[in-house]
Write a structure and sequence with these properties.
- The chain has 298 residues and is an alpha+beta fold.
- Strands 1-2-5-4-3-12 form a six-stranded antiparallel barrel. Strands 6-7-8-11-10-9 form a six-stranded antiparallel β-barrel.
- Strand 4 and strand 5 form a beta hairpin.
């Protein structure tokens, strides 16, 4: 009986032929993109299989996101409340920093008329009592702070340095009973000495006829070279004249924010180098003039 199936080509030959066909198809697809439509069709046909295979992963992800315990919800809620509290506190700090920056800008702006070195110092402690009105600052000898150095704020003179350590310094306020400052009335130039009484300033030894009225602004006179000339010191709030008394009782309120200052400004005296260089040249004409005068006299 004759076999129904005749023997075909060997397996090796089939493999070679398959490789050749596959290589030919790849070359044609690479060069001429003949099989792109076929790939699209196969991908479309297999898409439902991909979705079905991905269903377990989607279910697991949905469970992780939606099926949580009550304790997890409480913990998350507590964490969100804590974060909200922290953010509110930070927001309040930002508001404080904005106002502080405004005060610092005002402090620097107030000293534009002053020349020389100036440094902002922070108030560390307040020593206010019946016997002393002093502030502790965070600048000391490392910052070239010296005893007698003037201290101001955005509104006027506050006082001067009385004690210096390496990193801190102590200043006495204008209204301290041990502090006095030479002043002049801005309106008419009348000079006086303003001394503290613990809260305000009073002008010493001024006669009843002195031309000072309530509302007059007192400026630093520059005498003694401790404080810069023309800087606000106080405003007159009370003038009492009694015929039985030889002197008028005059009280003034400091213009500086003595009780509310968080930062102050330390000033250094300004030395104009041009004046220092010009000094020898200004003395020469005087000597020459004296010589000329001497010859005329002879």
């Amino acid at each position: 009986m004759k076999n129904l199936f005749t023997r075909g080509p060997s397996l090796v030959l089939q493999l070679i032929l398959s490789l050749l066909v596959a290589s030919l198809l790849m070359v044609l697809d690479y060069r001429y993109d003949y099989l792109s439509s076929a790939r699209k069709g196969v991908s479309t046909a297999l898409a439902p299989i991909y979705y079905l295979a991905n269903i377990p992963n989607e279910i697991a992800s949905w469970a992780d996101n939606n099926i949580v315990s009550r304790n997890d919800l409480l913990a998350e809620n507590r964490q969100l409340k804590d974060e909200l509290l922290i953010l509110k506190a930070q927001n309040q700090r930002l508001i404080g920093l904005e106002s502080e920056n405004a005060r610092l800008r005002s402090l620097l702006g107030s000293s534009r008329t002053l020349r020389g070195k100036r440094v902002i110092a922070e108030v560390l402690n307040i020593d206010s009592s019946l016997f002393a009105n002093e502030l502790l600052l965070n600048k000391g000898s490392m910052d070239d702070v010296f005893v007698g150095q003037p201290v101001v704020d955005a509104e006027g003179i506050m006082g001067q340095i009385v004690e210096v350590s390496t990193t801190t310094s102590r200043m006495i306020l204008l209204n301290d009973q041990k502090h006095a400052i030479p002043v002049r009335v801005d309106r008419n130039g009348v000079r006086a000495i303003a001394q503290g009484n613990g809260q305000l300033l009073y002008l010493r030894h001024l006669p009843n006829t002195i031309d000072i009225n309530e509302g007059d602004v007192l400026l630093s006179s520059g005498l003694g070279q401790k404080f810069p000339d023309g800087y606000p010191v106080a405003k007159v709030i009370s003038v009492t004249r009694q015929s039985a008394q030889p002197y008028a009782e005059i009280l003034a309120e400091p213009t500086a924010n003595i009780n509310r200052a968080n930062h102050v400004l330390l000033l250094w005296p300004y030395h104009d180098p041009t004046k220092a260089k010009a000094k020898p040249s200004t003395e020469a004409p005087d000597n020459k003039k004296e010589a000329v005068g001497g010859s005329d006299a002879s």
